[in-house]
Amino acid sequence: MDLCIIGSGYVGLVSGACFAEVGHHVICVDNDQRKVDMLQRGEIPIYEPGLEELVHKNVAAKRLRFTNSIEDGVDHSQIIFIAVPTPPQTDGSVDLTFIERVAREISGVLKPGQYRVVVDKSTVPVKTGEKVEATIKRYNKDAEFDVVSNPEFLREGCAVPDLMNPDRVVIGSASQKATDLMKRVYEPFQAPILVTDVNSAELIKHAANSFLSLKISYINAVSAICEASGADVEMVADGIGTDKRIGRNFLNAGLGYGGSCFPKDVKAFIAISRQLGTPFTLLEEVERINATMLTRFIDKVRSALWVLKDKKIAVWGMTFKPDTDDVRNSVAIELINQLVAEGAHVTAYDPKGAEKAVEWGLVDPTKVKLAKTPIEAVADAEALLLATEWKEFANVDFAAVKAKMHTPLVFDGRNLFDPQTMADLGFTYHAVGRPGPKAGA
Ligand code: UGA
Question: Which atom of ligand 1 sits closest to the CA of residue 208?
Fold first, then answer.
């Protein structure tokens, strides 16, 4: 099929590459000429495992191309996906200006007799589809189109496998013709397809992300009880997670959730529920618990080092999760900046995110030293703080780490290391919600 995707960010670009991979012809549109130029040169603006190969392969096969022209995309495609950002506003509600602008731009280039399915893939508040439809109609009375909601559930860091093997595909549609076309798009993925009305599809996305955030806050709240009682949150998570009704995924205690989705989507769902007159106050508690995790972690560091001013502290991890270079809303970055604000001398290392953190002005390179290796980061450090659970950190030579550090003190914010192993290596080791090695041994 001929598909067009407007917006070449994480969702748009990965979707475009995966749709091309299964045989569709895809035009990716972006209004950022610099990004389009990069993509046309074969450079990928984001780090996502497997994406570069997929883009190169499908561009070479002439199934994928990039342009800045919406008209080009709309003219040559039966289905137009909108995958532009929906950033938060200061009150937590969603800024829909990009969606509205794209709707107007589509209406401006839709020609009479040219039926199109306009699909919203961006995360949007319930009832946005109605507004997109009304906008296109307002600016183009002759437009022949249907609006569909098709939320995306991919995770950064494993976006390609998530897209190629989705748990489910949600198609929110009021038109049989549009639903049939959408089913053909997804047929090659052989995933369960759930057809709903547009409002329900939109709500599914916010409800799913909020539920996953709730799971994380739940286990984080349990981790605090574990710390107070000497229980081990990893064992508790295994114990409750093996119940199929609960599931072990997203029960990893740590520094809390970050990134460009969960914090924004929980806030948005709170705002939406309030606007609809049915406040979802449980989610306010989810946010509150999430915020306490970093505070608790820094309190632990402070209670070991007493005063943080002038202490040499190494931080491993800057991205909001492993296998991505995304540092937006990263708890690791917040940790680094809070330590710096207290006068600590921080040296940070991240396999992929350091450059973007500086480029986007999220850390000040005159205040934070950036190391090229994990070992370089710990030189003379009085404490090592693990903020993001990159696999690379699990494989570091800890004898070398210990030899380099001033004091062998480790705070593991993601429960990556084994308490007993760390103790055997001679480290004083603190995890989240886990007792020292003796209690579990
Ligand atoms: C999330 C959802 O998982 C995707 O399904 C969704 O499509 C995406 O948002 C989106 O709305 O676009 P993502 O933000 O890429 O994906 O990353 P996740 O793997 O969900 O992690 C989010 C945050 O939760 C990270 O900071 C991670 O460290 C944290 N987390 C995750 C935990 O603290 N504990 C866990 O057990 C799992």
Answer: 5
Outline where DSSP puts E strands in 121-228.
145-149, 169-172, 193-196
**Domain match, 208 and 186 both:** no
Whether 233 and 185 share a structural domain: no
Q: What is the mean pLDDT of the chain?
A: 96
* 296 ligand 1 Cβ < 6 A: no
- Report whether residue 266 contacts ligand 1, using a CB cutoff of 6 Å: no
Whole-model pTM: value is: 0.95
Q: Which residue has the tokens 């893939």?
A: 121
Cβ–ligand 1 contact at 320 (below 6 Å): yes
Q: Whose CA is nearest to atom 14 of ligand 1?
A: 261
Quick one: how far is CA 29 from the chain centroid? 22
Tens digit of each residue's pLDDT (9 = 90 or more) over 358-393: 999 999 999 999 999 999 999 999 999 999 999 999
Same domain, yes or no, for 14 and 161? yes
Phi/psi for 261 (5° steps) reads -115, -65
Domain stop point among 179, 196, 213: 196
| Backbone φ and ψ of 343, nearest 5° | 95, 10
pLDDT tens per residue, range 242-280: 999 999 999 999 999 999 999 999 999 999 999 999 999
**Angle made by CA atoms 106, 111, 112, in degrees to the nearest 5:** 130
Residue span of the structural domain in which 44 resides: 2-196
